Amino acid sequence: MSKLLMTRRRFLATTGCSVAASPLLTPMAFASAPWDTRLVVLILRGAMDGLDVVRPVGDPSFAATRPTLAAGDGLPLDGFFTLHPALAPLHPLWAKGELGFAHAVSTPYRDKRSHFDGQDLLEAGTGFDVTTGAARDGWLNRMLQAVPGLEADTAYAIGREELLLLAGAAPVANWSPGTRLELSPQARRLIELVYEEHPVYQAAVLEALELTEDIAAAEALRAATGEDEADTEMQAMMDEAPGNAAHMQMAEFAVDRLRGDTRIAAFSLGGWDTHGNQANTLPRALRQLSDVIGLLHAGLGPLWGKTGVLAMTEFGRTVRENGSRGTDHGTGGLMVMAGGALRGGKVHGRWPGLEEAALYDRRDLMPTEDVRAYAARAMEGLFGLSGTVLSGSVFPGLDFSAAPRLVF
């Protein structure tokens, strides 16, 4: 056993901090991207029921297929669709043109309706069934690969679970709630000595420590000075969240980084699998989504006008409610989009209808647009990426010409 290995093990035992396992140990540099706009991507794990979130009350088949779930009044949108009451805090954004939706969307995934395969394909963005050997990097990482000179701090994967969405060759930073490296000056000096003969690793470790110190200093400064109105509003929302919930911690961290050099943040929200008692289970997930978008809006302040938020799910759910007053795995679903940089105040997409003959496999909402097309339009407008890059590298083979432009 080498002297270096023994010294390193002794250091880890002494400090009680597994530096090698830290999600912050990514080579980082605070280099600005060549754009000033921001993108936040939320993966809604479990297959959100878009028909309950944005309800097609103007379709004569809606009430008949959902005798209990269609009951009750939603919030008015455009005369045909209404919004689930649990998203009431976001309704003012709709009125301001800063909240929108795309209905009847899906990935190319069909028929098997597996959460795992559906989520993998959504994040890979390749258009191929994952069982046939699709590329294992994510579409956001491929986008970063297409822009030369970006460093890890440009994009953050946030949360405890791996995000295929940002996996790949491009450098990406990672953070999860509760992560904080706190070392004494003696321990810091020991790091320098342990990695003295390995300057690359030494630089990465020290940079990670500096990042956590920067974050802690910024948090302390805001707490001490009440930096601005946006911070006050954001802190109030954090205080109201039960147990300072993880979804709010992730949103708060995203805000903190997006105020600086970070331009892209991504994380996931669970709780969308609603096979039974959907009237009680779905509102909990919707309140979390509302909390996250609301905190991004409050915390980013003026930067909200330069921000786009895309919330995507692996597939939709059945048109008919089941015997447990829930819905089962389906096909066509809903994308949620928010932010001052996107064209909101509209339910995008071509509505296919809910009569049985119009359904996919006579059970699901028929997809009329690829969900990747809306993501491509958002990146085209936010980052100025060409159609050649988006259809060639980011979403191979995708034709998004029929999707509406989403950025002003």
From TrEMBL:
Name of a matching Pfam family: DUF1501
Signal peptide start and end residues: 1-31
Record's keyword terms, sorted: Signal
The name this protein goes by in its record: Uncharacterized conserved protein, DUF1501 family
Phylogenetic classification of the source organism: Bacteria, Pseudomonadati, Pseudomonadota, Alphaproteobacteria, Rhodobacterales
